[in-house]
């Protein structure tokens, strides 16, 4: 069983920790346990319940009404939501729940159904990317079993690779983008997602992948002269020094246009892109940037 903190629940559900505490006092659907040092933690089941509750509450159901529902009723009510955004969020919640339970068949079935009906690009944009952004928090805090992470990410990786391999574009842009992950960073799903988006728009790609030392990056940049050098940081090792990384890029690649997107651009509050480095802090900013390429 995974053990989740109240901060994990806040990040995954969108419900503020303060509100979760109030709900615990007034209602019965959350019953956290306590560690030996009296710190509350939550089980898999409580996370799944809260995901359904947060969705229903966001789309019009009163919390007092929700409190009277059984778990099965909660689940059934989420299926009745017709709002497009609500349906998207419900599917992302399902993926999180299946990941927590390590229900591989159910996880892959949800993905395959969406891909079959909407296509791989919409699956990546509307389902996979939001899913990765939300569970990236769990990777940062080590509140997820590594086996869960590896199995689920490998499933997603295969879906993205198949979609990328099958891209056929009638046009080719002049822009060349080099994609890489920093040294000791192996979470490349976000980077594979970017590769898909860029390739589908006809952008030329140099894909270095994960765990790239800056000296190797510098060598390829000097040799291939890309228009942009791009990395996507979902999560990195605890020892990762963001300031040092930025300064190293500025020093080694002073003439390159460097782009950084991903969850970590949001978590390093107060950090601002300077000089030749630009942050893309949301999917909207990423897609807007890609639309400007020629």
What would your notes on this structure say?
- With 294 residues, this protein is α/β, with parallel strands linked by helices.
- Helix content is 57%, strand content 11%.
- The chain has two domains: 6-164, no CATH class; 168-291, Rossmann fold (3-Layer(aba) Sandwich), CATH 3.40.50.280.
- It has helices at 6-13, 17-26, 44-58, 63-66, 71-79, 84-101, 104-118, 120-141, 146-165, 189-200, 214-224, 242-252, 264-267, 283-291; strands at 33-34, 40-41, 176-182, 204-212, 228-232, 258-261, 277-280.
- Strands 4-3-5-6-7 form a five-stranded parallel β-sheet, sandwiched between helices. Strands 1-2 form a two-stranded antiparallel sheet.
Distance between the termini: 49 Å
The share of residues in helices is: 55-70%
Cα gyration radius (Å): 21 Å
Query: Tally of extended strands?
Result: 7
What is the approximate shape?
globular
The unreliable regions are none
Task: Quote the beta fraction.
Answer: 5-15%
Task: Describe the sheet with the most strands.
Answer: 5 strands, parallel
Seen as an oligomer or otherwise, the chain set is single chain
Tally the helices: what do you get? 14
The domain tally reads 2
Task: Look at the structure and give the mean pLDDT.
Answer: 87
Class based on secondary structure composition and strand pairing: alpha/beta
Strands of the widest sheet, in order across it, are 4-3-5-6-7
- Written as H for each helix and E for each strand, in order along the chain, the element string is HHEEHHHHHHHEHEHEHEHEH
């Amino acid at each position: 069983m995974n053990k989740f903190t109240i901060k994990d629940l806040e990040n995954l559900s969108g419900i503020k920790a303060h509100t979760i505490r109030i709900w615990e006092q007034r209602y019965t659907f959350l019953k956290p346990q306590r560690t030996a040092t009296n710190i509350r933690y939550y089980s898999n089941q409580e996370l799944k319940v809260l995901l359904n509750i947060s969705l229903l509450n966001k789309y019009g159901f009163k919390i007092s009404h929700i409190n009277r529902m059984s778990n099965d009723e909660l689940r059934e009510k989420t299926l009745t939501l017709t709002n497009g955004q609500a349906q998207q969020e419900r599917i992302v919640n399902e993926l999180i729940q299946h990941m927590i339970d390590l229900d591989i068949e159910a996880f892959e079935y949800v993905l395959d159904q969406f891909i079959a009906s909407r296509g791989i690009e919409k699956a990546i944009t509307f389902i996979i990317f939001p899913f990765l952004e939300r569970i990236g928090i769990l990777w940062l805090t080590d509140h997820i079993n590594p086996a869960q992470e590896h199995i689920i990410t490998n499933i997603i990786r295969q879906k993205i690779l198949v979609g990328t391999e099958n891209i056929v574009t009638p046009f080719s842009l002049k822009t060349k983008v080099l994609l890489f992950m920093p040294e000791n960073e192996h979470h490349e799903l976000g980077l594979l997602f970017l590769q898909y988006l860029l390739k589908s728009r006809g952008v030329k790609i140099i894909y270095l992948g994960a765990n790239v030392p800056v000296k190797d990056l510098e060598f390829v940049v000097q040799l291939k002269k890309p228009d942009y050098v791009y990395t996507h940081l979902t999560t990195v090792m605890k020892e990762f020094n963001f300031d040092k990384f930025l300064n190293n890029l500025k020093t080694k690649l002073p003439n390159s246009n460097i782009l950084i997107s991903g969850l970590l651009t949001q978590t390093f509050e107060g950090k601002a892109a300077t000089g030749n480095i630009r942050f893309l802090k949301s999917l909207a900013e990423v897609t807007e940037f890609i639309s400007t390429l020629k």
